[in-house]
Design goal:
Elements lengths: L35 H11 L2 H15 L6 H30 L5 H17 L2 H24 L9 H16 L3 H10 L3 H32 L6 H12 L8 H5 L15 H14 L2 H20 L8 H4 L9
Helix pairs in contact: 1-8, 1-9, 2-3, 2-4, 2-5, 3-7, 5-6, 5-7, 5-8, 6-11, 11-12
Bound molecules: fe (ii) ion (2 copies).
Length: 323
């Protein structure tokens, strides 16, 4: 079996076909801790997930016949299966959020049109580079939340079970589209330039589109003046868990010529969830085992803990696991 540079075995990418019990009863428009601003920034990203994942899997699938390494080809197929199932579950969740009054459909449509444009007008190789870039973003979000399950302290357990299954699989396959693109492109300088251009364009287009979507949803939901909720969102982004605080450390390495997604080797974190799921077949049980493991890791990491500028708003989160 072929291996990537950190000895990640390609046969470790497994599509777990789980249907979550997402219903009107547990998915409402402020599903993330009943907090409007936190919900809206993450939901604006989730609006792009179903179409984005379907486009990404097609971009990878189109390159597979150019891939020389049979291990990478095999894992590319598993990646496509995973993304198809993720899209299906996020479709259910997004539809429920729309039903409860947050107009995600208004955001989904331009995303879908954008992906359609890329499919028609962008070369197969460039789409591969864009897919590798998009996967790097999902891997960043997944790695930060995997370290901080307490961020979803007041979120419905079934939503959390679904999100952590997705975070685990996004991490598990974080190198697949990268390896497919690199193998199919021949790993030469032109391929490096294409990869870097893909990431720069994805960032330049994605950041304003997500920001405008967040502003629109906040306006529509009459939350623009909800300052306490705004502070909680900034805490999530820049304090703890700190998606944006960690962005330089996690995002910028992609531009190095020698970069590989498994340079940041966080298999230890997902392996806990994976082996618990393998034993029980239950994502809820796997999540509980995973949380217990994270709790045991906390003392070791406490000395490195970030001094949050928003600490006053996050103190209660630290008690999440003990509660
Ligand atoms: Fe996914
Ligand atoms: Fe993915």
């Amino acid at each position: 079996m072929a291996q990537s540079k950190t000895k990640f075995r390609y046969d470790e990418v497994i599509a777990r076909d789980i249907s979550f019990n997402l219903t009107k009863a547990n998915v409402h428009k402020h599903w993330f801790n009943d907090d409007p601003w936190n919900t809206i920034w993450l939901t604006a990203i989730l609006a792009a997930v179903p179409e984005g994942e379907r486009w990404g899997l097609r971009a990878v699938a189109k390159l597979l016949n150019k891939v020389k390494d049979p291990g990478i080809r095999e894992t590319g197929v598993a990646f496509c299966k995973q993304e198809r199932i993720h899209a299906r579950e996020h479709d259910v969740m997004n539809d429920l959020i729309i039903e409860d009054g947050l107009p995600l459909d208004k955001i989904e449509k331009p995303f879908a049109a954008g992906f359609e444009f890329i499919k028609k007008h962008v070369s197969t190789e460039m789409q591969g580079a864009l897919a590798a870039s998009a996967e790097h973003f999902t891997a960043i979000i997944a790695s930060v939340f995997l370290e901080h399950p307490e961020a979803f302290k007041d979120t419905d357990p079934e939503i959390v079970n679904m999100l952590y299954w997705h975070f685990v699989e996004e991490t598990e396959h974080k190198a697949v589209s990268f390896d497919v693109f690199t193998d199919a492109s021949g790993n030469h300088f032109a391929a490096y330039l294409r990869r870097v251009f893909g990431m720069a364009s994805m960032t330049a287009l994605g950041a304003p589109v997500i920001s405008i979507s967040v502003a629109y949803l906040l306006w529509h939901d009459k939350q623009l003046t909800n300052i306490p909720s705004a502070r909680r969102m900034f805490e999530t982004l820049f304090g703890e868990p700190g998606i944006m605080r960690n962005i330089g450390k996690l995002y910028l390495p992609f531009y190095r010529p020698s970069f590989h997604p498994w340079d940041d080797d966080n298999r230890e974190v997902i392996n806990v969830w994976k082996s618990a799921y393998e034993k029980s077949g239950d994502p809820a049980e796997a999540y509980q085992v995973f949380c217990g493991w994270i709790q045991n890791q906390k003392p070791a990491k406490a000395s490195k803990k970030h001094n949050s500028p928003f600490k006053a708003f996050s103190s209660e989160k630290a008690e999440f696991i003990d509660a």
